[in-house]
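Appendix B, example 12.
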Amino acid sequence: MAQATTLQPGQIRHLLRVTAATSRHPERDGLVLLLGLTAGMRVTEIAQIEVQDVLFPSGALRDEISLRAAITKGCRQRCVYLTHGKAIDALD
């Protein structure tokens, strides 16, 4: 089976620039793209995460997002680690 093609870093930068220039909600849409590309989250997981999944009650950003079993493929809870600088900046 052939491996799926992936975006090159230049293509990702271009995608983020075009999104920032043309989107009605550039911050949100850029964050959605970054969570998918850098954290490996699926579209349905991104759409269903909640504020308390990403932030502590104090308002501080979590280092990892615990995805509930109800929103993941296969209905198994999993953790996603936020390590990419651009994704962390977009969440801030």
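The chain has five helices and two strands. The first strand starts at residue 64 and ends at 67.
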